[in-house]
Structure formats: C-alpha cells, structure tokens
C-alpha cells in the first residue's frame, strides 16, 4: 500500500527531516509511528498524503508515485487517503452531518449517495443521533469521532492519523483506538503517529520508530520503546 525508497527530505531552512528512509507498509496493516518530538514523524505522514514531496527518493501510495504526480491528479489521490488530526479541524459553522458530507461534496458525489453514506459512517462512529449538532456542542472525543467519520466517508484505502488521541483523556483515547481498530478490521490501512506509550504497548501492532530522521526500529507486535 505504501512504499518509500531512499526518501530524503530537507526543508528550505536547511532542516533535515528524513535521511534515506526506506519502508514498505502492506495493505490492511495497522502501523504506529513513534519517536521523540522533531524526529521526522510529521514529515513522514505529510509525504504520504502529499502535503510535502521528498527532496530525493520515491514514495508510492496505492500504486501511485506521489512525488511525481501532476497537480491536477493530487485531489484524486487524496480521495483515497483519509487524514485525522490531533486538533480535529472541524468546520465550526457546519453541523456534524455537514462536516462529514463536505468530504463527499468535494468529489461531487450524488446528493442521495452523500446522505446515505454520511449517515452510515456516523452510525459506525456512534454519532448518528447527533447529526444536527454543531462541533461546539460535542465533547472532544465526539469531535474526534466526527473527524474520523469525515476521514473514512469516501472509503479511503489509507488513513493517516497524526496524534489522534493527543487532546483526549485516557478513557476516550481507548474508545478512539477501538474505533480505529474496527476501521482497520474492515480493510483500511492505518498509519498513526503517537506519543501515547500505553496505547502502543497495549495494542501491540507494528511499530516503526524514527529518530533524527532515521528509522531505528521496525518491529511487528512492537512496543513504544521511548520514555515520554
């Protein structure tokens, strides 16, 4: 699903974020990306959904060479990649339903399809009964569930989750992780960056550790391995 071949990323200010990273993530895997702050995790994630392009090397997502995509094809690729952020990034003036439906409207899906699919994913994340609410009327955990619903509404092949439990209390974090695990079980590849040692150690998925722009550990059923 995701392949990086000798990926280097250097920013305009000279900061070296990734140094010759090569990795393969198979379809339907659940992978934790761990490491200290500034290690290169965010850059790794941004390369997957084409917010950044590599300085050197090649990255393939679902068979497409992301770095060499023409600008007009980027929106098409992003339909197949759902992104979940730590700070939710919901549109405050739109209802729960409208926030999720917006992702389908962006690809010009038929109205009847939008309504049916939006209600389906809201039911999956346990928020169908709050479809008329606004983000300000929801708890942090509920807002993150809406964010996840928005990320999966277009049936993406991959979900990139950047610290999705970072602003949540421990119990709510566990609920969000069970939801992501269910989505993964249904066939979606998930790559999640996190500092949450307890979640990583309890769920025992594949762990890729990055330090100073290098992959220093890649373990199936791994543990966090860093002191927070």
Structure description:
The chain has helices at residues 41-48, 74-78, 96-105, 111-124, 140-152, 170-185, 197-203, and strands spanning 2-10, 16-25, 30-34, 56-61, 64-65, 81-85, 158-162, 189-193, 206-211, 214-219. With 228 residues, the chain is of the alpha/beta class. Strands 6-7-8-3-9-10 form a 6-stranded mixed sheet, sandwiched between helices. Strands 2-1-4-5 form a 4-stranded antiparallel sheet, covered by helices on one side. α3 crosses α4, α4 crosses α5 and α5 runs parallel beside α6 (170-185). The radius of gyration is 17 Å and the shape is globular. The protein starts with a strand and ends in a 9-residue tail after the last strand. The model has no long low-confidence stretch (mean pLDDT 92).
List keywords for this structure.
single chain, 228 residues, alpha/beta, six-stranded mixed sheet, four-stranded antiparallel sheet, 32% helix, 26% strand, globular, ABC_transporter-like_CS, nucleotide-binding, cell membrane, ATP binding, transmembrane transporter activity
Radius of gyration: 17 Å
- Inertia-based shape: globular
Helix content: 25-40%
Portion of residues in beta strands equals: 25-35%
Count of runs of 4 or more consecutive helical residues: 7
> In terms of structural class, how would the helical and strand content be classed?
alpha/beta
Q: State the distance separating the first and last CA atoms.
A: 30 Å
GO molecular function: ATP binding; ATP hydrolysis activity; transmembrane transporter activity
Subunit structure: Homodimer. Forms a membrane-associated complex with FtsX.
Keywords: ATP-binding, Cell cycle, Cell division, Cell membrane, Membrane, Nucleotide-binding, Transport
Protein name: Cell division ATP-binding protein FtsE
